[in-house]
Amino acid sequence: MRTVIQLLKDVAETQGEHSYLTGKTNSGWKDISFAETDRLTDQAASWWLDTKLKRGDRVGLIAEGRPEWVIGELSMLKAGLISVPMSIKLLAEEIPFRVNHSESAALMVSRITLPKVLKTWAQIKKKPFLLIIDTPNIEEVSEMTSLKIRPGKNWISWEDMTAEGASLHASDPSIVEKSIAVIKEDDTVNICYTSGTTGNPKGIMLTHLNYHSNATVAIDYFGIPMAEYETLVILPLDHSFAHTVATYAGLVKAITLSFVDARKGAGSIIPNIPVNLKERSPHFVLTVPSITGNFMKKISEGVAAKGNFLNGIFTRGIRAGVKLIGDGYSKPSFIVKLKYGFNHALAKTLLFGKTKQVFGNSIQFCVGGGAILEVKQQEFYAAMGLPVYQGYGLTEAAPVISTNSPSVHKFGTSGMVIPGLECRIMKSDTQEAAPGEKGEIVIRGDNVMKGYFKNPEASAEVLRDGWLWTGDLGYFEDDGFLMVIGREKALLIAPDGEKYPPEEIEEIITAYTDVFNQIVVYNDMKKYTTALVTLDETACNKLFEKRKVTSAADALETLSEEFEAWREAGDGDKTIPPSWRPTVFEVIPKTFSEEDQLVNSTMKLVRYKVVEFYADRIEAMYTDLELKNERNLGAMKELFGLD
Questions:
Q1: pLDDT in the model for residue 572
Q2: Which residues pair with residue 232 across a beta bridge?
Q3: Which of 40, 42, 413, 630 is the most exposed place for a label (fewest CB within 10 A)?
Q4: Residues 483 and 495 in one domain
Q5: Does the pLDDT of residue 569 top 70, yes or no?
């Protein structure tokens, strides 16, 4: 039977003593083996089966990545329940919709997320039972009591739950065995709510077969050996990328999952990533562009601080590596090897080995997902000897559709479609595109979701005759690599109805110059395209110093020259048609962030929210084309102190 629980049973039998889950405690890192995980989840499942919950009931799971998260979810599955994973980065007011829509009968929360749940408790229609991972303190107990959430009756601690579960299981283990025996491949494992980059979230129903097939094929595609690898889980476990390629793929290949230390709260997660990387020395890491981008910046700044001599070796080595590696697929010519080999070898010998150690001593590669990874990032890491393999997927596909891998990769693409999955590019409902022609990405396979929870209309819209219409645009190159170029529903639209993907423009601008940090281009039936930009202050300061900029007006003129240079140069084969090139831009002094709900939990821009949030700035660009306006001058003064 192809189920998640069968994966656990199989690995517990063959690799039982090998470490599966590792979390940091006051006494150091604590390991939980596969056999122990199987035993603990049996016990917790006994507790779930002893509650009033019925098979198929939903249980919300709102907690940071940690061993208890995995044990909690696997125990729910053994008891025939459906987990509803939610991001710890959700705002308090975003939680009630998901709890109410999923009709969650219970919530598993941590100390980090409990305050958010209690804050909007009144908006939750049917009050769920609370399972609290961290034993609440006096103040938290008092607040719950004031909300009529009483111990034993309305909530229980993880410690008490596991103790009760152990006792129940010891008295009759057959109850859990019988529950596991009736699990079917088509049973829903969890309901994952979309991040809402294009509107209200929908509940995606993913089954045992969806996860079993995707985790097995994806991890096999990377050629990872059995029981030899470890990864530091830095992405939220509610997201299907980490769900599949960490939690469940870990069962396939007996991978040890260590979790970033979050004991001091959500704010400690990011600062603890570099610390925990050095402590655990993982073999690979799942990441998103914002994280690799930050490491890339820190690495470059760290080398630059060592002085011009070493920085020169490093910079020339990266440039040489980019030339030698090329796109990672085509082999360099003898002349290229001769011209660039020495500089790359020198940097590799003196610097690259040490700089890679920010990821630990055992790192082999990273896998990027969640958003399109800029080519310049892929080139930088590959040149340094630490490739970041870009993949493509979406939650509705559980999620992996295509990926680059150590054996087959081409930087700038989303890799090859994984085995066992059919993928087409459709120009229309009936016409398939030829290689090189753009269209909607459509897939079919065992990883395709069951549908959207309580939303048959939306399900019917994207699921047609067994095919999932992803809403993403792309094309196949002649050599079979998939190029993903953006969302169909996020397209720029000209007055004549012509459409164009904004991501393609944004990627080229950021690849051409490093002064722009984030870019959102916009055109909704307008006569020209515009852009909102945030700035990389470090890169801007270097540029302004080089150009001897002393005023806000001069700074804007310098930025305009960078922008115009891109407009004229384009990017080789990816040159943007003149009609779609942004005519003017507005400088936003504050980075688009999760705090303002403009970036989701995987650090992807929520485009429609950015447009709504800065509607007045966008409108201003269609009434006044003057770059040196009061808004932009004010932004330069705020950011750089320029008058």
A1: 47
A2: 258
A3: 630
A4: no
A5: no
CA distance 420 to 447: 9
Least confident of 193-197, 263-267, 476-480, 627-631: 193-197
> Reduced to 3 DSSP states, what percent helix, strand and coil does the chain have, rounded to the nearest 5?
45, 20, 35
Give the position of tokens 């011009």: 308
Please report the pLDDT score of residue 103 as a whole number: 98
Burial 523-541, CB ≥16 within 10 A → b, else e: beebebbbbbbbbbeebbe
DSSP 125-190: SSPPEEEESSPP-HHHHHHHHHTT--BTTTEEEHHHHHHHHHHHHHH-THHHHHHHHT--TTSEEE
> Residue 574 pLDDT more than 60?
no
Q: Give the per-residue pLDDT at 571.
A: 47
State the sign of the Cα–Cα–Cα–Cα dihedral 516, 522, 526, 527: positive
Residue 358 DSSP label: G
| Helices 67-78 + 34-50 axis angle, to 10 | 60
| Adjacency order of strands within the sheet including 530-535 | 516-522, 530-535, 584-587
DSSP structure string for 545-572: HHHT--SHHHHHHHHHHHHHHHHHHTTG
Q: Are 37 and 21 in contact (CB under 8 A)?
A: yes
Joined together, the tokens standing for residue 261 give 């230390």
DSSP string, 299-352: HHHHHHTT-HHHHHHHHHHHHHHHHHHTTSSSPPPHHHHHHHHHHHHHHIIIII
Identify whether residues 422 and 526 lie together within a single domain: no
Q: Which residues span the domain enclosing 341?
A: 287-488
Are residues 464 and 507 located together in one domain of the fold? no
pTM of the predicted model as reported, rounded to 2 decimal places: 0.86
pLDDT tens digit sequence for 310-320: 999 999 999 99
- Same-domain status, 123 and 234: yes
Given pLDDT bands bounded at 50, 70 and 90, which one contains residue 201?
Answer: confident
- Chosen domain end from 452, 471, 488: 488
Counting DSSP H helices and E strands in the chain, the numbers are 24, 27
Mean pLDDT of 498-526: 86
Overall number of domains in the chain:
3
